[in-house]
Amino acid sequence: MRTPEDGPGDDALLVGTAEGDRKAFQCLMERHSKPMLVLAQRVLGNAHDADEVVQETFLKVWSMASRWEPEGRAKFSTWLYRVVLNACLDRLRRMPMAPLDEVGELADRTPSSMDRALAQQRHHILIQAMAQLPPRQQTALSLHYFGEVSAPRAAEILNLSLSACEALLARGKKTLRKILAGMGINGLGDVL
């Protein structure tokens, strides 16, 4: 449960968001993104898809904030859970399903010694490439992608706005791809 030290309530933050206050929006995201990610990951069983659903949901929050009615029927958090759940269910409906008899045997998911060696080599290559990044890009990528810190939290840690942090992350990934290409690796997917 939120305490007064946590800052303004969700309704006040939505009013600020509707007025274009990025800090109010960032506060909403920081307050609610983790439980939304947990919900989405449980429903989808996939961290990547869950992250996309939560990002899309917060884009809806940003765009609909001016239409939010504080005296409405539901609390913001309740509405948010519903939107995330519906987005997850929609995504699951769009995923192609194979008939059970066509699936076959489940693969053994324990990594072989070859898989572990390859993972270790990928990690070494990535560390070498990351060392060539400008310091701010290296820090942002390390926090967000490898430290699993949310973009809003990374922005806070780096004392940047969310949009500036996201731009820094995008530039960092682009630069990292170029460095890896120079090493003969065709993309982040080859090492991540």
From TrEMBL:
Q: Hey, which family's this protein in?
A: Belongs to the sigma-70 factor family. ECF subfamily.
Alphabetized UniProt keyword annotations: DNA-binding, Sigma factor, Transcription, Transcription regulation
A GO term for molecular function: DNA binding
Pfam families (alphabetical) = Sigma70_r2, Sigma70_r4_2
Source organism, top-level taxon: Bacteria
Q: Name one GO biological process term.
A: DNA-templated transcription initiation
Question: Native species of this protein?
Answer: Telmatospirillum siberiense
Signal peptide span: none
Q: What is this protein called?
A: RNA polymerase subunit sigma
Q: Record's Gene3D superfamilies?
A: 1.10.1740.10, Winged helix-like DNA-binding domain superfamily/Winged helix DNA-binding domain
Residues in domain RNA polymerase sigma-70 region?
A: 28-94
Record domain RNA polymerase sigma factor 70 region 4 type: where: 125-176
Q: Which InterPro entries match?
A: RNA_pol_sigma-70-like (IPR039425), RNA_pol_sigma-70_dom (IPR014284), RNA_pol_sigma70_r2 (IPR007627), RNA_pol_sigma70_r4_t2 (IPR013249), RNA_pol_sigma_r2 (IPR013325), RNA_pol_sigma_r3/r4-like (IPR013324), WH-like_DNA-bd_sf (IPR036388)
